[in-house]
Fold:
Amino acid sequence: MRRPLDGIRVLDCGVYHAGPGGPAILADLGAEVIKVEQPGVGDPMRQAKQIGSVPLELPGGRSLFFEGANRNKKSVALELKTPKGQEVFHRLVARSDVFLSNMRRPALERLNISYPVLREISPKIIYTAVSAFGPRGPDRYSGGFDYQGQARAGIMYSMGEEGTPPAACQFGLIDQVTAILVSHQIIAALFMRERTGIGQEVHVSILSAAMYLNYFNVLIAGLAGFEVPRHSRTTENPMRNYYQCGDGRWLMMTLTPPTRHWGPLCQALARPDLERDSRYDTDEKRSERARELVALFDQIFATRPRNEWLDIFRERDLFCCAVNRLNEIAYDPQVIANDYLTNLEHPTMGKVKIPAYFGSFSEAQAGTTRAAPELGEHTEEVLSGLCGYSAAEIAELKRTGAVA
Structure:
């Protein structure tokens, strides 16, 4: 079956994840993505075998993080610091629709791959720049990673309990949302080019992506003038809260509007007497007495295992679900039924389960078809098939160190 971005070619000069993660999504949609890497070095993420205390090395010496950001791609080992390497790269640009890099602007200019240069070669190119903090301002040339996005966009004060230190989310939350928004920007620019014939430069930063993810909390601070309080489970709205069940597992319920759901909830909890209890018979009273009502609900939920509660809530159409641990997701019946995890035949690990593309199409398909490439795995294929270099020319480029 066809793929939505069949025929689109992307040149990926990204490193780590926030940059190359965007082209990986485009590759899921069928784009041909050519990852350009320095010979003998490659994307630094190839060497990320451990981050903090978390081991990330896979069989065959591969990096788990590199796999996630570079699925479906072709790798070309090209030395952009040499005139011959730049000549090869410019030939690739002339045959591509999209260029992406998250290198900082001074580095792009030194390598002769800035937007003004590539626009001269291909006026219709969609030139995609990814930065830490945006293209203007005092930190426009500063670097940053996922944690800087979480920190600077207020996300670390939007998670965790009130009164506790700022909370960081593992792993790559902001890197991934940056990658998603990068793919969005590119697709929008491609659509505009399809309508107008105009190429352009587009930009996404880790900071802008993090703020967009944190949209409503930032909006409330700006429009209403106050910071949204962090969730405090013991004093928060009892009907928009999470509870531990008799088997030690947790569930999350969100019953809005509470007035309509208060009666059915009391029936589900086998406490019909609470519905007309004068202490709790209005939203205002339930809010005022949240601490005692949460404590009461804690006692009730502790009387049954989670799956029993989920069945009871489902029968009454009360919005509630399991709070999954990461190793439980693969056994979630909705994940299984909707193929939200998919099989991939990996070159060193055999058949593995990986996250699937997040949406579906009635007349097309999307998803991962192959694992991340070895460094320079497709150099000869791309140079001969796409760029038209002869075997003798490729051998000479290798001799000079322009390619590997």
In short: The domain at 240-330 is CATH 3.30.1540.10 (formyl-coa transferase, domain 3).
